[in-house]
Design a protein that fits this description.
There is one protein chain. This protein is an alpha/beta fold and about 775 residues long. The protein folds into four domains: about 230 residues, 3-Layer(aba) Sandwich (Rossmann fold); about 100 residues; about 220 residues, Rossmann fold (3-Layer(aba) Sandwich), CATH 3.40.50; about 160 residues, no CATH class. The chain has 31 helices and 19 strands. The strands form five sheets. Strands 13-16-12-17-18-9-19 form a seven-stranded parallel beta sheet, sandwiched between helices. Strands 3-2-6-7-1-8 form a six-stranded parallel beta sheet, with helices on both faces. A two-stranded parallel sheet has the order 4-5. Strand 6, helix 14 and strand 7 form a beta-alpha-beta unit. Helix 9 runs parallel beside helix 12, helix 17 packs antiparallel against helix 31 and helix 30 crosses helix 31. The protein is globular.
């Protein structure tokens, strides 16, 4: 084996990395140790996990196949794997070339295959386990991805027996949502039903008990209908030999609990989990089962201050109480390690983030005990103060912010106290070094007419400057109303069902979907009629609609994959393949068409058989129902997982949730552009008066779960989550942090806002403001 000292030297020589004190404690812990690593933002948790895995291999002699490392997103999993292989091969090369090692050690080192370490998301790992370690004579289940499972849930859950029209179910779901009727459509209903289904598994609920609950006759009837919808959905999955993500994890847990997966379990020696603060009870039980199989060698890494996914069923208490829960289940106490050296941000930003985390006395009780302040191991000579830009109107704010961004990225820079903020274009700097973080990147809010929000006004202002600056905000509008989506949807409709005769008689297409289809058709036809250059596209659509290729001697095929039509149409729509936002929209269409291929008996093909007109109409009807209807209804939309990279030449506009795990040299955080006054409908975004949707769901479902009812009120949890949200936002920048909003939301302003220094008692803790106004 290799000594720890020799490994650390090889790590330094091969990668330039030397772990700090906290990282070294985690890296050098015994291979069989249980570790609870609390890692603040920018403290190198990915690096720490990577170094520990390499130490396990080269020092402890753990076979790579005996190491399992999971994280929360595919992007994070790819980063861990990339770093593991890059650093691993560099360390391996350093060690092999060490002349002081024995021949036996070098031969052993040369045979180590780092690529055999299992890494991925927990869902990806579960899918791999069921595929690679299935019982003899059985086939692995087919995983229904989000597009497929949401389509089946929409069809079997809401459309079946017209459940989506039931007033009791509609009222019950809307009350659980708790945010009014704005944006309440079939897509929102399907999303909430999906969340309840997921939490049924995530919270390990006694579903039979819940299905018999209810405080009124109307609520009992709604819950009964919800139960029947989910029962039909589960049956449909079962009939297709499919499982969705929640069932996938549940299946692996059941097999482990029953003593199965023995071949894998015998290989397993160590489990490492990143982003553990976003774990749910189902996943905790899964990780504890794995830990029991490898003698308790479980390392979890995370930060309770960065737990943002309560709305997806994450239970931050599992992280905060990890020591107690692990000890109770496995009988040994894990070693707690704090990582608090922040390598990302300036000292000014780190101090600001520290102070914000301690601003609210009520929040301190839910943080991990003994948590130290973040520190900067490498202070800089000159640092920019935290900045604030507050204006009387959103129009003034958008204009001044656009000019600031333009000066920093396209001009000579912006001066602050003798220092200049500017993107170094000679060092490949660009607009993509800046990001605007919002609670929501939506460009329109509620109201009639729709309220124009900062992302839209800023997009408009930046487009009018010289040179103009484009933005990247594919989640800025509801997918179904984006012009390029309307045109592609309208073209598909006119090719498949010209005029809409099949659409008009198709069951399962609600009035809402029918209206969207009609809008798509009308706007597409107007677009085609308004540009003579589009005449070839118009002719193509006409020929496709009549299933006549207009070529002598050519017979239209009896079965045509719809994907061929889709890709033919986008030939005339360069914005869908040349523009970064358009590429994301096109991805939704292709993913949903893939879902239709799995769900429909016609495999997303168009039948053209004059002798069987009913079959022809049904094949088109399936495409309307399973391909285009989910997009029109909002059930299929832009998912954050679809956005794998951000363009360098555009201003990135992201939700704060989406920014987690990212960093930018300059970060602009919208802390109050929406809040002109103390409107109750906006309170949950700035200073909650009532619990939000995830807290309502917890209060509804957790009494039927081993998690039990939370002692902390839903209102307190709503405040906690807002503080966590802005903690994440404020900790993203490397060099410059700029807070923007309306004057009413400034510290001490008449609009209470936790993002600008209010604690939950309403006291302003930012006096004087901890930023320099510009």
């Amino acid at each position: 084996m290799i000594s720890s000292a020799l490994f650390l030297q090889a790590l330094k020589n091969g990668t330039g990395r030397t772990p700090n004190a906290g990282q070294k404690q985690a890296v050098e812990a015994p291979g069989g140790a249980a570790l609870f690593v609390v890692a603040g933002p920018g403290t190198g948790k990915t690096a720490t996990l990577t170094m520990r895995m390499l130490k396990l291999i080269f020092v402890d002699g753990v076979a790579p196949r005996g190491i399992l490392a999971t994280t929360f997103t595919r992007k994070a999993a790819q980063e861990i794997r990339s770093r593991l292989l890059t650093w691993g091969y560099a360390v391996q090369e350093e060690l092999v070339s060490n002349g002081k090692l024995s021949k036996m050690d070098r031969l052993w080192l040369e045979r180590v295959d780092i690529n055999q370490v299992r890494t991925g998301t927990i869902d990806g790992v579960c899918e791999e386990l069921l595929r690679d370690f299935r019982d003899p004579g059985t086939d692995p289940p087919i995983l229904a991805d989000k597009f497929v499972s949401d389509t089946l849930l929409l069809r079997q859950g809401l459309f079946q027996s017209d459940r989506y029209k039931d007033d009791d179910l509609d009222t019950f779901l809307c009350n659980v949502r708790g945010t009014g009727r704005f944006g309440w459509n079939i897509g929102a209903k399907n999303s909430l039903v999906r969340t309840i289904w997921d939490r049924r598994h995530h919270d390990q609920m006694d579903w039979v008990k819940f299905a018999g609950s209810g405080t009124s006759q109307e609520e009992k009837q709604a819950i009964t209908l919800l139960d029947s919808a989910l029962t039909d959905y589960a049956k449909e999955l079962g009939d297709r030999l499919m499982v969705d993500f929640a069932q996938l994890e549940q299946t692996v847990l059941a097999r482990l609990a029953a003593g199965g997966l023995t071949e894998f379990a015998e290989e397993l020696k160590v489990v490492l989990v990143d982003e553990y603060q976003d774990t749910n009870l189902l996943q905790e039980r899964l990780y504890f089962q794995l830990a029991q199989r490898c003698g308790g060698a479980l390392t979890v890494v995370g930060d309770d201050d960065q737990s943002l996914y309560r709305f997806r069923g994450a239970t931050v208490d599992l992280f905060s109480n990890f020591e107690k829960r692990f000890t109770s289940t496995l009988g040994t106490k894990p070693t707690k390690i704090f990582l608090n050296e922040n390598y990302r941000s300036s000292s000014v930003i780190i101090d600001f983030v520290n102070d914000y985390a301690s601003l609210d006395a009520g929040y301190q009780g839910v943080r991990v005990a003994g948590k130290p302040r973040l520190v900067n191991p490498k202070p800089r000579d000159a640092e920019m103060p935290v900045l604030g830009m507050f204006r009387n109107s959103i129009e003034d704010l958008a204009g001044d912010l656009a000019r600031f961004i333009h000066a920093v990225t396209r001009g000579d820079g912006f001066e602050v106290r003798g220092q200049w903020i500017r993107v170094d274009r000679e060092a490949s700097g660009d607009v993509g070094d800046c990001a605007l973080l919002c609670s929501s990147p939506q460009e329109y809010g509620s109201g009639t007419p729709l309220k124009e929000r900062l992302p839209l006004l800023l997009r408009r202002e930046l487009g009018q400057l010289n040179p103009p600056i484009p933005v990247f905000n594919p989640r800025g509008q509801d997918l179904a109303v984006i012009p390029s989506v309307e045109r592609l949807g309208g073209l598909l409709l006119e090719c498949l069902d010209p005029g809409g005769p099949i659409q008009s008689v198709m069951r399962g297409l609600s009035n809402e979907i029918q209206a969207t289809f009609n809008t798509w058709r009308a706007r597409t036809l107007a677009w085609l009629d308004g540009d003579s250059k589009l005449e070839p596209l118009r002719d193509y659509a006409v020929n496709w609609a009549s299933r006549d290729a207009d070529r002598p001697g050519y017979a239209w095929p009896k079965s045509t994959p719809c994907i061929e039509l889709l890709y033919a149409l986008i030939h005339w729509m360069p914005e869908l393949h040349d523009d970064p936002e358009g590429q994301v929209y096109l991805e939704v269409f292709t993913r949903q068409l893939g879902a239709a291929e799995q769900v429909s008996g016609f495999k997303a093909r168009v039948v053209t058989d004059p002798d069987k007109p009913d079959l022809t109409r049904t094949s088109v009807g399936h495409l309307l129902l399973y391909f285009l209807a989910p997009i029109a209804s909002g059930a299929a939309g832009v998912d954050e997982e679809l956005i794998e990279s951000f363009p360098r030449d555009r201003l990135n506009m992201l939700s704060i949730h989406q920014s987690k795990g990212l960093e930018f040299p300059l970060v602009i955080v919208d802390v109050g552009s929406d809040f002109k006054g103390r409107y109750p409908a906006q309170a949950f975004k700035r200073f909650p008066r009532n619990p939000g949707p995830p807290h309502n769901l917890e209060d509804l479902l957790r009494p039927h779960s081993p998690l039990a009812t939370l002692r902390r009120s839903g209102l307190d949890r709503a405040f906690d989550d807002l503080y966590r949200q802005y903690f994440v936002a404020f900790s993203r920048p490397q060099d410059v942090l700029l807070l923007v909003g309306l004057n009413a939301t400034r510290p001490g302003g008449n609009v209470e806002n936790v993002a600008t220094g209010r604690d939950r008692t309403g006291v302003n803790r930012w006096s004087p403001p901890p930023f320099l106004e510009i």
